[in-house]
Amino acid sequence: MLTYSFLTLSLWIALGGNNEVLGQDDDAAENILLNTPDKVVINNIFIVGNKKTKKNIILREIDLQTGVSYDWEELISLIQEDQKKIYNLQLFNKVEITPLITGSEQIELLVSVTERWYIIPNIILNLADRNLAEWWTNQNRDLSRVNYGGRLVHNNVGGRNERLRVGGQMGFIRTFEVLYNKPYIDKKQKHGLAIQGMYFTQRNLQVRSSGNKQVFYSNEEEDILRRNRSASLTYTYRGSFYNFHYVTAGYNNTWIDEDVFTQNPNFFIHGTNSLEYFALRYNYRHDKRDNILYATQGQLLNLALTRYGLFGGDDVKDWEFTMNANKYTKFNDKFHLVSGLSFNAFLGQRQPFTLVRGIGYNPYFIRGYELNVVEGQQVIVHKNSLRFKFLDLGYNIGDFVPLEEFAYFPIKLYLSANFDHGYVNDRNRIPENLRLTNQYLFGYGLGLDLVTLYDMVFRLEYSINSQNEGAFFLNIRAPF
């Protein structure tokens, strides 16, 4: 952040190190700050602290340019925006941009960054269920539903912000995945490519829902009930700082054991136990948030249109439209309001169960309904949180942790008042799920959000839904 001390330092440098500016005469320093030039020209931009990250990756996020005249207030505003964009690369723990006044209406920009640890070997130990409450209550804390394995993640391959992820998982769902994302393949840094492949199998899978809860099926005589292979290639275009375009071509093949049809004859709707199709998706994203992992200011808009079934032999032929629009309003350093509207719609009357959407499936949820799934062809959810930051601390633990990337341990605590509401339209009006489909639903309550190292988020919430059911829920990551 741009701080008083850094700005005072820049003025001190410009005046040749006069001790009256720093330490001996605070009033003189304040007078100098009040007499900053009306207009300035940036002569140079210097970047320090980027041991791994290439300079051009950082410069791509900076709107400020050398040789251009800026009003001082405009300069400060652009510095703040550029700091946010660099931080949202998720490559740095800390970003500071400081203007160094070197002469009459002349400045240099110093961009100082502290890099994160980029190569992260992950131990996979998670639940196969939608959330902790689902596993704890509906699945009776069944340890067989735990996934375990390993994953290697490199978040900055070659210092060019390329992402590589390779992982294998055993347990409830056996998975192998590989992802490589190169955000820029051209010198102007506007075009990118990503490729992803995944293979997984299940011995126990959700086959339907009843009473607005998931119903799982397993067969001790069958080792595998579902086998899935998928691959995709994504082209990205970023013509401006906050607007992104994605075009994804994908292939999916899902095989299920015949016994699944004894539990749900409509699991697939095309007559065989193998589902194969190609898909094409266009996604537009406008992202102007101060922190993409836990935003307190800005806005996010996601629009996507997907065509399932590109060729005559494809087993699915349908269109899907998705929208997510979030607004983050910061009133002051303590209070901010978050409001998010999500919408999803299929054109078709019925979809294969593997494409079912609804409340309870990410990102469509209403607090208080964590134990339920409400499925249908159209879903609309409006989520709201008023948050109060009552704790903001940071600890230097460098004496105990030898790695600089983990030397600073932040702790932020927010108290949130939440209200979510929504509606699911089920054209098929499945009788066993009519309790919650095709009707207005809402939930409200209080929550405590912990934001800590690398912007990890933990949420403890007590919520009551429109059925007057209340409970505590523990969640990981921000709700929107």
Automatic annotation (TrEMBL):
Residues 40-116 form the POTRA domain. It is found in: Membrane. InterPro entries: Bac_surfAg_D15, BamA/TamA_POTRA, D15-like, POTRA. Keywords: Membrane, Receptor, Transmembrane, Transmembrane beta strand. One of its GO terms (cellular component) is outer membrane. Transmembrane segments: none annotated. It comes from the Bacteria. Signal peptide: none annotated. The keyword Glycoprotein does not apply. The keyword Repeat does not apply. This is TonB-dependent receptor.
